[in-house]
Amino acid sequence: MPKRLSAVKLIYNIVLDFSEALESWSNHYEFHDGQEELVSSLFYRKMKSGFYNTITLDKCEIEVLYGEVDECVESLGELNILL
What we know:
Layout: H1 7-15, H2 18-29, H3 35-49, E1 55-56, H4 59-64, H5 69-78, E2 81-82
Parallel strand pairs: 1-2
Helix pairs in contact: 1-2
């Protein structure tokens, strides 16, 4: 099960630029191949489309998820990112 971020760590990641935050998340959550690229892709797609526009993951992106998939679905849903 992935480790949870403390409030301090969460705020710390917010003030970092994206590449530094991505590295921090990758280390904290122990991302495997493809997960860092997925997070980066979602970030840039959200920035381009706007927060309230929906993004739907394709089959290849869904396959990158593992473990607590229900938690991923819930968290991504809060960002209007659907599977």
